[in-house]
Fold this sequence. Notes:
The protein is of the alpha/beta class. It has nine helices and seven strands, in the order ααβββαβββαβααααα.
Amino acid sequence: MILKRLSAFYLLPFALIAASCSPKGPYAVTNKFYKHHADSAARVVQLEQPAMLVDSTGAQVPSEFVGTVNFNLRKPNYVIIHFTAQDSLGQTLHTFTIQQTQVSAHYVVGKDGKVVHMLNDYLRAWHAGVSRWGSISDMNSCSIGIEIDNNGNEPFTGPQIKSLLALLSYLKKTYNIPATNFIGHQDIAPLRKPDPGPYFPWKILAQHGFGYWSDDVLELAPDNFDYTTALKLIGYDTRDINAAVVAFKRHFVQTDIKPQLTQLDLNVLYNVYQKY
């Protein structure tokens, strides 16, 4: 079995090269691999075997499998937005269709507004990595990952944002995702990730019901305002408070990402946290 997996691993790049000349398109091989992998996952779901348990004395615990009639697939409850940090849609698709990278996302949005769906929404993509939001420490298992074709140092295009809004509207309606649960990679991994970056239009998304933004008129934060607790209530991991502050400012301030909170930053935080 190990030899078979290693053979498949090393042969896949050569198969991809051959597939690039195929009349079925450059992703014929990866689509076939996807179907095979999905079929394998489906077979796991269909297993009907009892849990094999033993007690503290080593004796087997009686168990059996009885199928319930009340179930469905687990649905995603968060949307995590990323930038690709790469130079083209094609480069990102290549990254997500080779096994060496061990990264993936459900959707990729190109600069021209083209949306590429790469993984069934009910399946677990590898996009969030080591992350935390509130009490959730495995964001991959409850979220949809959206990568936007952007190298991190450029504005997002109009067609891109228009398509993203359409996609977010579809996901919000299909899976009943709360407005609070549209967040960025920076929010859930403040020590590691800066995306989707300072050019991302969070305010526009909030105006369409995807996430929150501060009001135009801000009330002064009280003198005894506990900003650490406020960040934690929003969802930020505050074990490294400086990283949490920077992540918050990347999302809600954007003009300044120093780890110190100015009075304006405190006012924005005070306003935003009350929405959660």
